[in-house]
Amino acid sequence: MNLSMEKSPGWVRAVEIGLGIIVVILSIYALASPGAVFVSLVALLGIILFIVGIGRIISGIFLPIKGRWAIIGLGIVTLIFAGLVIAFPLIASWIITIFIGIALLFGGAASISQGFAGKESGWKRGFIIGVGVLLIILGIMVLVSPVFGAQLAGIVIATGLLIAGIQMIVSGATGRRLNMPSENLADKK
Description:
The chain has seven helices and two strands. It is mainly α.
């Protein structure tokens, strides 16, 4: 199975480079203020959920489906919660951060439990237990300081965007994209 390299058209390369530069600039801004990025994403999530709630209500009213009243009711509940998130994005971010901290604690406890009870031995067991301890430490830090948790989440998001932007620039600059070969039916005969 050979991988083929195809040259991208010039305009596609320019668009990739331009969009990559925009993503890198935005990710640097996001790294400079990761907490604001997290709160903004929570507010955006609230807007998306608001639209989903409206869609559910419309579906429940106008489409002949079973459970019509349940769909309408859940759509209304979604609208209420989405409205609260949009109106109070800082409080919603704080609540989400608390849930992240609790999830980290449970994930760490599960990892430690797996390390002690699992079949792994040696460095694998130590690694699994070490990851569990690290998750518990992060969970405690997030619960003690939700601002730290929001900033940590913002840094992770911004770093991912930075990597994606750099990849876009490199892809546009080299003008090559990786294509998986499609097997020709004639080759199988």
